[in-house]
Amino acid sequence: MDGEALKLRTQLARPDVSAEEAKRVLSVEYDLSGALTELGSQQDRNYRVDTEDGRFVLKICRMEYARVELEAQNAALHHLGATAGAPKVPAVIPARNGEDIVVAIVRDVPYQFRLLTYLDGTPLTRRKHLPAQTVAELGDLAGRLASALKGLDHPGLERELQWDLQRAGPVALQLLQTMTDVDLRKRVAEAMVAAMRRVQPLMPELRVQAIHQDVTDDNVVSRVEGGRLVPEGVIDFGDVLKGWLVAELAVTCASLLHHADGDPFFILPAVQAFHAAFPLTDVELEALWPLIVARAGILVASTEQQLEIDPDNAYVRGNAAHEREILDVALSVPFALMEQAIRRTVGKGAAPTVPLTAGRLLPDIEPSRVGIVDLSLLGPHLPADRWHYEDTEALLLQSAARAAGTSATRYGEFRLTETRLLQARSPATFALHVDLCLHGQTAVHAPFAGHLGRRGDKMVLSTDGLHLHLHGIEQAAEGAIEAGAPIGVVSGDPPALGFIRVQLSTEAEIDPPPFATASQAEAWRALCPSPAQMLGFDCDAPLPAAGELLQRRQRHFARPQKNYYRQPPQIERGWKEHLFDVEGRAYLDMVNNVTIVGHGHPRLSAAVGRQWSLLNTNSRFHYASVAEFSERLAELAPDGLDTVFLVNSGSEANDLAIRLAWAHSGARHILSLLEAYHGWTVASDAVSTSIADNPQALTTRPDWVHPVVSPNTYRGPFRGEGSTVDYVRAVTEKLEELDENRVGLAGFICEAVYGNAGGIPLPPGYLQAVYAMVRKRGGVCIADEVQVGYGRLGHYFWGFEEQGVVPDIITVAKGMGNGHPLGAVITRREIAEALEKEGYFFSSSGGSPVSSVVGLTVLDILHDEALQENARTVGDHLKARLQALGERFPLVGAVHGMGLYLGVEFVRDRETLEPATQETAAICNRLLELGVIMQPTGDHLNVLKIKPPLCLSRESADFFAEMLGRVLEEGW
Ligand code: PMP
Question: Does the Cβ of 786 fall within 6 Å of ligand 1?
Answer without folding.
Answer: yes
